[in-house]
Design brief:
The protein is of the alpha/beta class. The protein has helices at residues 15-28, 44-53, 58-69, 86-94, 119-130, 150-167, 170-180, 199-202, 225-232; strands at 2-7, 34-39, 72-80, 83-84, 104-111, 134-135, 140-143, 186-188, 195-197, 209-215, 219-224. The strands form 3 sheets. Strands 1, 2, 3, 4, 5, 6 and 7 form a 7-stranded mixed β-sheet that branches. Strands 8-9 form a two-stranded antiparallel ribbon. A two-stranded antiparallel sheet has the order 10-11. A hairpin with a 6-residue loop joins strand 8 (186-188) and strand 9 (195-197). Helix 1 crosses helix 6. The chain starts with a strand and ends with a helix.
Amino acid sequence: MKIVVVSAGLSSPSSTRLLADRLAAATLEHVDAETEVLELRDLATEIAQHFVTGFPSARLAAALDAVAAADGLIAVTPVFAASYSGLFKSFFDVIDKDALTGKPVLLGATGGTARHSLVTEHALRPLFTYLRALVLPTAVYAASEDWGQEGLAQRIARAGGELARFTAPAAAAAAAPAAARGGAARTTGPVGAFDVDTTAAIAPRSLTGAITSVDPGDGFVTVPFEQRLAALRVP
């Protein structure tokens, strides 16, 4: 399994790279994986040239391929003008539109003040949702005053645990023997974040509807569309 870390920090050393490394370390505490770090500042000229020529250099192409082939992604940017940096956005502008589809992505950002702490929600999360990535629930923002604080360490640990669960490859293999025996199988979701009752895969039923609950004990609760529609009708 491989996790790719994308850091858009501009200085060396940078707090952005520090946060990226700590998120990767927190993930590796839960799962055995290979990691590769992409420093976008080293690719800045090649990214700009790609916009003009339409062709990536060999080094940029290798970076784009690494992201596309990764089992999980950690993406961290500094905050510029209350949003992600132009370099960070440019890299994800040149990546293939389908490269991140269904891929677990852990988001991080760094800034000089806590006032920008919602950048992960109003800027980063919409970007990766548009790219059809599986954006993890916990995103980590680190302001200058957060370093060394217990709260930041706790958020990093929680986020790393989520990425590890969502990239764990054993879930599908563990469920296959039980399903083959015709019994109800219990397996983790696409990344192990919650239990899913796979009885429905054996006893066919419509899955058209909306997930209204993700409970570790009960699994998915799926409400058929017809039932939801009927509830909205006026008697």
